[in-house]
Amino acid sequence: MPSGRSRLLEDFRNNRFPNLQLRDLIGHIVEFSQDQHGSRFIQQKLERATPAERQMVFNEILQAAYQLMTDVFGNYVIQKFFEFGSLDQKLALATRIRGHVLPLALQMYGCRVIQKALESISSDQQVFVLSTHPYGCRVIQRILEHCTAEQTLPILEELHQHTEQLVQDQYGNYVIQHVLEHGRPEDKSKIVSEIRGKVLALSQHKFASNVVEKCVTHASRAERALLIDEVCCQNDGPHSALYTMMKDQYANYVVQKMIDMAEPAQRKIIMHKIRPHITTLRKYTYGKHILAKLEKYYLKNSPDLGPIGGPPNGML
Questions:
Q1: For 211, which of 83, 106, 167, 306 could close a Cys bridge (C-beta 3.0–4.6 Å)?
Q2: Is residue 137 within 8 Å of residue 174, measured between CB atoms?
Q3: 170 in helix, strand or coil?
Q4: For the chain, first and last CA: distance in Å?
Q5: For residue 128, what pLDDT is reported?
């Protein structure tokens, strides 16, 4: 055909098939799905189709699933299966999404398919699973950036239910960091409240420590003061939480961030708490970072606190 369409599609478009049924489309499902009128026809028929008819359509679209997900008309046929398909069909389509999550999320039709998939598959297989997937975590970030408040609300609710697990996950921690950087104040506050009371433990965790740093950076002034206060006041056996954190390969970065972000009065408190440990900190690789940070602030802002080095014999 001159248009590149099959005769069947051409005849259908010219109303020569008034009683066309899904079974008449065998071998032409993908072509019809990518046509404006054909796609609408298949969508309408799928809503009332028998399981056998749906399976016939599904067998053809599964082979071209990715192509249809990114097609201006085909994506709607895929979405219909997430609405009206069987559980097996939904899961089969979900597996077609795997490995292509990022490009789909960044493509204007593909992101609609992912959104529909998230709405349609059971909640226990939904966002939490996607957030802990290397591509999925980026998808969630894109959804949080580009989707409407109405679409992101259920995703955020689910994230809040799993904050403690996600912050410790190698991919999930990025999703929580993203909310702290770009989210609404109320979502940031919910995350900060989950971190409070666990600052010491989470700061010593490879992935969660990054989230604690972001909390210190992006929390409100009052929340930040509480996080810093928790570290300054909490005792951890014979030593303070602050002392434990300063020697830790991950937590020392949280302490550095606290020194940077603290209000001057609170920074002075941190420095006085650190001061008795200066000699010990010199022995630790990570402690040296803290000392460098202290020297910077002592020299810059706090001549009244006196030199940091102490007497030549090392006694303070």
A1: 167
A2: yes
A3: coil
A4: 92
A5: 54
- Tokens 């297989």 correspond to 125
CA pair distance 299, 209, nearest whole angstrom: 28
Q: Which structure tokens are listed for 297?
A: 């602030």
DSSP of 13-74, one letter per residue?
Answer: HTT--TT--GGGGTTTHHHHHTSHHHHHHHHHHHHH--HHHHHHHHHHHHHTHHHHHTSTTH
Sign of CA dihedral 84, 89, 93, 98: positive
277: exposed, middle or buried (C-beta count within 10 Å: 0-12, 13-18, 19+)? buried
Picking from 111, 101, 188, 178, the residue whose alpha carbon sits closest to that of residue 147 is: 111
Q: Which residues lie across from 236 on neighbouring strands?
A: 239
> What's residue 80's pLDDT?
96
Tokens matching residue 161: 């239910």
Q: What is the pLDDT of residues 238-289, one digit of tens each?
A: 678 998 999 899 999 999 999 999 999 999 889 888 888 888 888 888 888 8
| Tokens coding 95 | 């597996």
The whole-angstrom separation of Cα 54 and Cα 194 is: 45
Kindly report whether the global pTM for this prediction surpasses the value 0.85. Answer: no
Kindly report the three-state secondary structure assignment for every residue of 228-295. HHHHHHCEECCEEHHHHHHHCCCHHHHHHHHHHHCCHHHHHHHHHHHHHHHHHHCCCHHHHHHHHHHH
Strand partners, 240: 235
Read off the pLDDT of each residue in 40-66 and give the average, rounded to a whole number: 96
Lowest pLDDT segment from 8-22, 31-45, 271-285, 291-305: 291-305
